[in-house]
Design brief:
Elements: E1 9-14, E2 37-43, E3 64-67, E4 73-77, E5 80-86, E6 90-94
Antiparallel strand pairs: 1-2, 1-5, 2-3, 3-6, 4-5
Length: 95
């Protein structure tokens, strides 16, 4: 896939949540929420500030991230689902 986000945008692929709880209860598809965790697939060059300089992005390709529940725009590329979001929608990087 050849896709390069612009400015401070990030392309993220959602990570699937577990289908069984710790207590052994199986969660049906109708009750599942969309995951709020994902893996960064592509990163833009960064936002241009008021001084004309480009700010460095705080995430990199391959980072596991936590983002807002309703963040980004859903895209379907080559049959796979992705989210395109701004760097500001990312809450944390997961180690």
């Amino acid at each position: 896939m050849k896709l390069k986000p612009l400015n401070d945008r990030v392309l993220v692929k959602r990570l699937e949540e577990e289908l069984v709880t710790k207590g052994g209860i199986i969660i049906p598809d109708s009750a599942k929420e969309k995951p709020m965790r994902g893996e960064v697939i592509a990163v833009g060059p960064g936002k241009i500030g008021d001084d004309g300089k480009r700010a460095k992005m705080s995430v990199e390709n391959g980072d596991k991230v936590l983002f807002n529940k309703y963040a980004g725009t859903e895209l379907k590329i080559d049959g796979e689902e992705f989210l395109m979001m701004r760097e500001d929608d990312i809450l944390a990087v997961i180690d």
